[in-house]
Amino acid sequence: MKLMNYELPLGISVTQHPAEMIDEFVENGFEYFEVGIPASLQDDDAKNMAWRGCEEKLVETKHDLIERIFAHNLRVWSVHLPFGYGWDIAHYDEAERDAACESLKRVIDLTAPWGAHVYVLHGCLEPVSIEQRPVRIARSIRSLRELNAYAMKYGARIALEDLPRSCLANNSTETRAMSQAAGDVPICFDVNHLLGESHADFMKALKHNIITTHLSDYDGVDERHWLPGEGIVPWNEVVTTLMESGYRGPFLFELRKGENGQYHAKEVLDCFKNALK
User: Which is nearest to 78 in space by CA: 201, 229, 213?
Assistant: First the structure.
């Protein structure tokens, strides 16, 4: 879609969307889709990890979405790998780290037929204490390297997502160091996760490593996943810097409307256009 004199490929995370909403996003020019795999089968079984060994059932929850995307002859651009209890690739306990990586590999196997280009991954489960941070960074780097090599068997890449608060990869310096140490794993740039650094500084450090995006707005205090224009994100600067750095991936929105609500395609597109004026 032509915006700001650029041809911007548009994408949307449809993790929580009903399958029938795919049609309206396609009609409004969205051609790239991210599908997230849930961390558990039920909200109350996450901590006891009752889902472990049931990865096929987790992936199966997205069957209708995938069928609808394929019906439009479009592709799944990215899969957001599960995060939460039992999925921590930076777990202090090495056995738990190993188990998390094996479960993630199983999800990659099961979703490989979707043809995703990118697997977005969180580098840790929070909170991360100051005392444990060095060890957990080392664990995460090892996992990133291992999982990226695994994804590459299917022609895909792992993308390390920048995260807020005490999480690993919560600033450009740490994100770049982890990426490089893991073998230049590319980055998923989530613009609403930067809490202690400007977008300009983050992009200056990592713009050539960014392979995909999560776009939404926020207040700079915490992640919010608002519509573009409702917060402080400098949208013109973000788009211009990415395009001039050679980024050609989708401008992919990851939005939340309350607990379970979803924004309609035209609403997302109109807000983005207005934010770029």
Answer: 213
Count: domains in the chain: 1
**DSSP label at 28?**
T
Q: What is the CATH number of the domain that holds 77?
A: 3.20.20.150
Closest CA to 187 of 127, 244, 242: 242
Low-confidence ranges of the chain (pLDDT < 50): none
Q: Which domain covers residue 186, as residue numbers? A: 2-275
Alpha-carbon span 111 to 121, nearest angstrom = 14
Residues in contact with 173: Cβ distance below 8 Å, sequence separation at least 6, in sequence order: 205
Q: Residues 112, 113, 117, 118: is their CA dihedral positive or negative?
A: negative
Residue-level pLDDT at 159:
98
Query: Residue 50: its pLDDT value, please?
Result: 64
